[in-house]
Amino acid sequence: MNRPHGTRSHRKGIIGFTLTELLVAIALVVVLVGLLMGGLQKTRQAANRIACLSNLRQVGVVIGLYIADNRVYPGPSNGGQNDVVGSGQLSYLLRNYYAPSIKIGDRTPSIFVCPEWLAWSNHGAGEPPYGYPCYTANHRIILKNGTGVITYDPFASIGDGTQPMRPTQLLGLEGTPDCSYTASREPHGTFSLSRTWAIADIDAAFLSLTANGANAWSPYVPPKTAIHGGTRNILFFDMHAEPVPANRLEDGQLH
Fold first, then answer.
1. 115-136 burial, b for 16+ CB within 10 Å, e for fewer?
2. Rounded distance, CA 105 to CA 111, Å?
3. Where are the domains of the chain?
4. CB 77 within 8 Å of CB 158
5. Could you tell me the sign of the dihedral formed by the alpha carbons of 151, 154, 158, 161, in that order?
6. Considering the entire predicted model, what is its pTM?
7. Using one digit for the tens of pLDDT, what is the confidence trace for 137-165?
8. N or C terminus of the chain: which is more exposed, having fewer CB within 10 Å?
């Protein structure tokens, strides 16, 4: 008669011990998952940074092919290179060199979209925004000319009545005092194709520079210093691409 009672008591002991152990195990799992997710996020960001750099290198190759045929930079174009194909987008102007069938209104092919920007927009808005910039093109190279300055626009902004520049024209400006991105318009270095950005990752800090403000873009522009965690991927005017610490490109030139 005592056996059932003893058995029930024994089972209670097992159940009590198991629940305690389960709670400890759950706590450990939560900690491990947190650590794992942090590691996965860093891995994803690193992969996206590499993919973005690869994108810009491909864009540089495509621009080089365009220049070889047309002897000018692609344009007229917009400053904001966004996730929808449009007449002012490099993704459309360069279509014959990588995707001839692409049409205005299509989503922009992956080489013209920073994957970290896409991940950021997914996280912030629930889905990628439509028609907002994920890269930006340089339309303002401001060089000293005697006592004044001249602004050069290699890609020729839409609506300004000018045509894109020839690479030889830009090359002829090598060594000219550069006043880009300084409110005082005083030289802070010399112009160089290999040190001046052509296409860059987009973020609020970069847009806030004197010559590049674009508040209308702010709802879908990453607010942090740089989309890749303190680093920007840059395609330079000599068509090489490299990652650059954000604080080395605050004024438009690589120092």
1. bbbbbbbeeeeeebbeebbbbb
2. 17
3. 2-248
4. yes
5. positive
6. 0.80
7. 998 898 998 888 999 999 998 878 789 99
8. N
